[in-house]
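Issue 218. Parser rejects a valid record. Input:
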Amino acid sequence: MSIPPRGPEPDPPPEGAVQPPRGDLAQPGQPTEQAEPGPDGATGTAAADDESSAALREAEDRWRRALADLDNLRKRHARELNGQAAAERARTAAAFLPVIDNLELALNHAAADPGAIVEGVRAVRDQAVNVLERLGYPRQAESGVPFDPARHEVVGVVQEPGADPNTVVQVLRPGYGEAERQLRPAAVTVAKRE
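Output the parser choked on:
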């Protein structure tokens, strides 16, 4: 049998160019013959199952540890918040102890001089107001200021000839605090619009 003459060799493809498929390789979409799994084929599948089972167990273990860590963090945070709240309550109560001491002194001297008792009670009230101010709740008891619904609670509207409309005429109960940090608004009467 004669071998047909070969033509000139084609130029090699440029570097990095995709090579055309060789005839001895299976083309995409063509069925390929599957080899029967040998004795090593069964152990390969079992080894893959063992690896995936081990990975699953490890992931599950890490997940449980993360949940336990999160639960411990939540409990620690709750303990810290409770401790801070208790410390703040104690600090506030301690700030009022001198007020109570002075009230007891005033009651012990009640029989002495009624005028002195009035002055003593007034001094104790001023001391209590000062404690509230140091805690961040200053007293709000100004009259003649424009009505502010964030700071005032209207309990009455009066006809006041000398006052501008919508201004505070009288403070019936002082308020404590400012803006968002308010214990209570001041109870006031307001001048009526004419």
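Fixed in the parser; the record now loads. Residues 38-42 have pLDDT under 50 and may be disordered.
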